């Protein structure tokens, strides 16, 4: 932990008793560390006033824009930010967001969002289909997938109707199929 991190943790009260005692001694003995603690106390003092902060309407958009501008991209990679991309209505209660398509391999990866009670028709697989459950439940025939589960339907297999009781969000990689 850097001195800056330790000073902020001291002011926020997140250190254990031993670390807090060590910081207390350093404040007395080390003028530089004491200045860091004072700076953090001054930064955080408005939070202790109890007055409700007024947050400008545009602040979140401004923060997101600065994050996007400062984002580092690695050569030869693609990063899709959480708010990027459009959701496509596929059927009642089912939307997808395409994350990646590789036409040459006839392969795509997308997120699927199903509303509670939604169903998706049975289908066959030209390629393996992989499903990773991000949240909720997805019921495929008698199989129930839940948050964190991973499922593969092998090429040439038939998938019965997909449905959800609570709604779900999942990541799917499969052959490109018409929407």
Structure write-up:
- With 179 residues, this protein is an alpha+beta fold.
- Helix content is 30%, strand content 32%.
- It contains four helices and eleven strands, in the order ααααβββββββββββ.
- The protein has helices at residues 3-12, 17-29, 31-48, 59-70, and strands at residues 88-91, 94-102, 107-114, 119-120, 123-124, 129-140, 143-146, 150-153, 158-159, 162-163, 168-175.
- The strands form two sheets. Strands 1, 2, 3, 4, 6, 7, 8, 10 and 11 form a nine-stranded antiparallel sheet that branches.
- The mean pLDDT is 87.
Features:
30% helix, 4 helices, single chain, alpha+beta, 179 residues
Element string (H = helix, E = strand): HHHHEEEEEEEEEEE
Overall mean pLDDT: 87
Shape: elongated
Largest sheet: 9 strands, antiparallel
* Proportion in helices: 25-40%
SS summary, helix count: 4
Cα radius of gyration in angstroms: 25 Å
The CATH architecture of the largest domain is Sandwich
Instruction: Note the gap between the termini.
Output: 51 Å
- The CATH homologous superfamily name of the largest domain equals Jelly Rolls
Parts with pLDDT < 50 across at least 5 consecutive residues: none
Secondary structure category: alpha+beta
Q: How many β-strand runs?
A: 11
